[in-house]
């Protein structure tokens, strides 16, 4: 999968000491780590603690990952484990009862790892594609996402109302033409990934 | 070629992606980037800072005479390397430290279990770690000028 390859390449570069590659990985997965902590209802301080453990562990084990393209899954698993551990230790401190039952509810709070990672990868690709658009297109899409009526959009962008539709189409087409996004859309809509012939 | 997402689908997913990014505080992301500075901290040639003074075993050297007197209840430790001295004092729940000569940087505490904690050393070489580790730990320090120093294991 192209996403895996992109991640794998970043991991390799980071392993060689490339801070920029590491930054890209962080930008890609920070919102996933954040959202996992949210699901465990951690406050900001605990979230920062968990994140620190997760990123430090990642830095330490970057060179040992069996499948570098799966860094996202590794981060998600590590984040969940750290969240559980933190809650467990806190819980043990307060009441000594039924740690097992507590564990189970903690795990039910979050969706499956694959889903988490898939969303993070998709968001990263979409965000990166969005950032390559012209500022005008970005603004147009942002206004559309705010669900403003065409009239309002036309006024804000200073274009005739008749151009809003075509501009929207052009900007979305431009977005689609991003190679990483195109590859992602294809892989996600393909019915059986396993049977692909290159 | 298989069908791609419709415009509506694409927009909805884009909206979700932008929301996910926006909901994360920037300082959260920036903090994660600084973790990279600790890559290979054990493997690289960080200078080893030797324990030169420990208040628990005070009186063994000249430094101890002055120190033990004014801070009897505090545990104080001094680590010395060629370029840098790290002084730490342990209060009830905080570990405070001072670099000599004073200079900014980052300090990283790694407990034996692998738990880590990292913080900034300010412009005058001061740092405070808001957690007193219950297990053995080591300190790794990296100054803004690139000096890297590691201490041996410390048990409080």
UniProtKB/TrEMBL annotation, chain A:
What stretch or stretches form a coiled coil here? none
Matching Pfam families: Sigma70_r2, Sigma70_r4_2
Q: Name one GO biological process term.
A: DNA-templated transcription initiation
GO terms (molecular function) for this protein are:
DNA binding; sigma factor activity
Q: Which InterPro entries match?
A: RNA_pol_sigma-70-like, RNA_pol_sigma-70_dom, RNA_pol_sigma70_r2, RNA_pol_sigma70_r4_t2, RNA_pol_sigma_r2, RNA_pol_sigma_r3/r4-like, WH-like_DNA-bd_sf
Keyword set includes RNA-binding: no
Gene3D superfamilies, A to Z: 1.10.1740.10, Winged helix-like DNA-binding domain superfamily/Winged helix DNA-binding domain
**Annotated ranges, domain RNA polymerase sigma-70 region:** 25-92
Alphabetically list the UniProt keywords. Answer: DNA-binding, Sigma factor, Transcription, Transcription regulation
- The RNA polymerase sigma factor 70 region 4 type domain covers which part of the protein? 126-170
The similarity annotation says: Belongs to the sigma-70 factor family. ECF subfamily.
Name assigned to this protein:
Sigma-70 family RNA polymerase sigma factor
Protein source organism: Spongiactinospora gelatinilytica
TrEMBL record, chain B:
The highest taxon in the source lineage is Bacteria
> What protein is this chain from?
Uncharacterized protein
Q: Which organism is it from?
A: Spongiactinospora gelatinilytica
């Amino acid at each position: 999968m192209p996403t895996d390859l992109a991640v794998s390449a970043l991991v390799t570069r980071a392993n060689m000491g490339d801070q920029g590659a590491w930054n890209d990985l962080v930008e890609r997965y920070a919102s996933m780590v954040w959202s996992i902590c949210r699901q465990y209802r951690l406050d900001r301080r605990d979230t920062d603690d968990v994140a620190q453990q997760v990123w430090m562990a990642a830095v330490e084990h970057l060179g040992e990952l069996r499948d570098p393209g799966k860094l996202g899954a590794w981060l998600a698993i590590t984040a969940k484990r750290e969240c559980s551990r933190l809650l467990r230790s806190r819980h043990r401190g307060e009441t000594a009862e039924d740690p097992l039952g507590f564990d189970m509810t903690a795990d039910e709070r979050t969706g499956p790892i694959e889903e988490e990672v898939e969303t993070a990868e998709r968001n990263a690709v979409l965000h990166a594609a969005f950032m390559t658009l012209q500022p005008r297109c970005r603004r147009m899409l942002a206004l559309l996402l705010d669900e403003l009526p065409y009239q309002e959009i036309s006024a804000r962008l200073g274009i005739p109302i008749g151009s809003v539709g075509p501009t929207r189409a052009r900007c979305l087409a431009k977005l689609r033409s991003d190679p990483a996004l195109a590859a992602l859309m294809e892989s996600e809509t393909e019915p059986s990934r396993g049977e692909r012939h290159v | 070629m298989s069908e791609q997402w419709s415009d509506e689908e694409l927009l909805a997913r884009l909206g979700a992606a932008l929301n996910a990014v926006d909901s994360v505080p920037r300082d959260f992301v920036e903090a994660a980037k600084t973790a990279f500075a600790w890559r290979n901290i054990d493997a690289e040639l960080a200078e080893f800072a030797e324990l030169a003074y420990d208040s628990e075993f005070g009186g063994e050297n000249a430094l101890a005479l002055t120190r033990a007197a004014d801070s009897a209840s505090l545990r104080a430790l001094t680590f010395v390397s060629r370029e840098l001295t790290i002084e730490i004092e342990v209060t009830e729940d905080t570990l405070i430290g001072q670099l000599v000569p004073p200079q900014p940087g980052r300090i990283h505490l790694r407990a034996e279990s692998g738990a880590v904690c990292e913080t900034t050393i300010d412009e005058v070489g001061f740092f405070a770690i808001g957690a007193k580790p219950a297990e053995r730990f080591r300190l790794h320090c990296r100054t803004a000028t690139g000096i890297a120093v590691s201490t041996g294991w410390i048990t409080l």
